[in-house]
Amino acid sequence: MNTLSYKTLSAKPADIVRKWYLVNAEDVVLGRMATTVANILRGKNKPNFTPHVNTGDCVVIINAEKVKLTGKKWEDKKYLSYSGYPGGLKKISAEHLREKKPISIVEKAIKGMLPKNKLSNEIYRNLYVYAGSEHNHQGQKPTEIKI
User: Does some domain include residue 9?
Assistant: First the structure.
């Protein structure tokens, strides 16, 4: 057996072909949608996945304001931000965050599922979230995904 024929091929940035996907978030559970989208953004659904290269595809999410949370998470789930000063902890519930900035809930869920390194910033740029059903990416002809 020729052992030189077994090579691990790493994807190079020039070899990557990006596809565009469209996800309708209306009446979809947030966590289930976020895991699917994070895997597509990362490129884990492709056979040439390489951990240190951005091999992922672009994802457009529409109707982000109509996403669903199970149980009492609309009232109980809190998003925290800390300014760094004493007493600078701010809490906002998911329900108030949806009223204030509806796309933020979806963006925070997906960003939290990406790796915490410089590559995640590059991967995160391939995510486009819209509150309504209109988006600016008809020219890319995104393929719709059912979740």
Answer: no
